[in-house]
Design goal:
There is one protein chain. This protein has 222 residues and is an alpha+beta fold. It folds into two domains: 3-24 and 101-216, Heat Shock Protein 90; 28-93. The protein is built from five helices and nine strands; from the N terminus they run ββααβαββαββαββ. The chain has helices spanning 28-59, 65-93, 106-115, 138-152, 182-197; strands spanning 3-4, 17-18, 102-105, 121-123, 133-136, 161-166, 169-175, 201-207, 210-216. The strands form two sheets. The chain has a seven-stranded mixed beta sheet, with helices on one face. Strands 3-5 form a two-stranded antiparallel sheet.
């Protein structure tokens, strides 16, 4: 859900758009809405897989190498998409049997997630101290950050900067993005859910010519 608001990150900005992170105890309606969006993504990926596979099976000997390479790329890309969706579903609605709780080093998972999208985290000296950890599943925190960076980072959108100026907080800035674009909206909602389940808070706002996000890694410190 998108609604106009001001936040602690946007107090000096005009017409900010703020996303509020979901509650961990999701209401029936919000849960059903998210699962419905997830099912739609599964159907889209499976439709692409089915179409490419059927064409490959029926006309393999008639197609030239360029078309065969394109079909193989589609199958590879959509297979990876389905695997990604399974990870999201397991993280937000699984039985928890695969969740591994251990100290999570925020700077490390941020670097790993950024590297998956060829981004580099600018970490201020001291923000990556060894004791800057919190309890959670490092794989799921990394997944949530990867989803977030994917939503922000696209060739058409321009460059994205990622930084950790203070231990436990990651900020990213991108050129102004259309937060209502369906695939980006789904990615942002997925990132919210996955990170929230690990006690992390995500805020996203757009104003003027930029979109800015802040992630608090781990529960709020007392």
């Amino acid at each position: 859900m998108v609604r106009g608001a001001t936040s602690s990150l946007a107090c000096d900005l005009d017409e900010a758009v703020s996303y509020a992170p979901p509650r961990r105890r999701l209401t029936t309606g919000s849960h059903a809405e998210f699962v419905g969006a997830l099912v739609h993504e599964f159907k889209s990926a499976l439709a692409s897989l089915q179409g490419a596979s059927e064409l490959l099976a029926r006309r393999h000997h008639e197609l030239d190498e360029v078309v065969l390479a394109d079909l193989s790329a589609i199958i590879e890309r959509q297979t990876a998409r389905v695997a990604w969706l399974v990870r999201v579903l397991e993280a937000v609605d699984g039985d928890g049997s695969s969740r591994r709780v251990e100290p999570v080093h925020g700077a490390t998972v941020a670097r790993q997630a950024a590297a998956a999208h060829d981004l580099v985290v600018d970490i201020t000296r001291g923000a990556d101290r060894d004791d800057e950890t919190f309890l959670g599943d490092p794989e799921r925190v990394r997944l949530g950050l990867e989803i977030l960076f994917e939503a922000l980072h696209s060739p058409a959108a321009g460059s994205v900067t990622v930084a950790m100026a203070v231990g436990g907080y990651v900020t990213a800035v991108a050129p102004a993005l259309d937060l209502e674009e369906p695939q980006r909206r789904f990615a942002l909602r997925s990132a919210f859910r996955v990170l929230d389940m690990e006690g992390c808070q995500l805020r996203v706002r757009s104003t003027g010519d930029e979109t800015r996000v802040e992630v608090r890694l781990g529960p709020r410190r007392k």
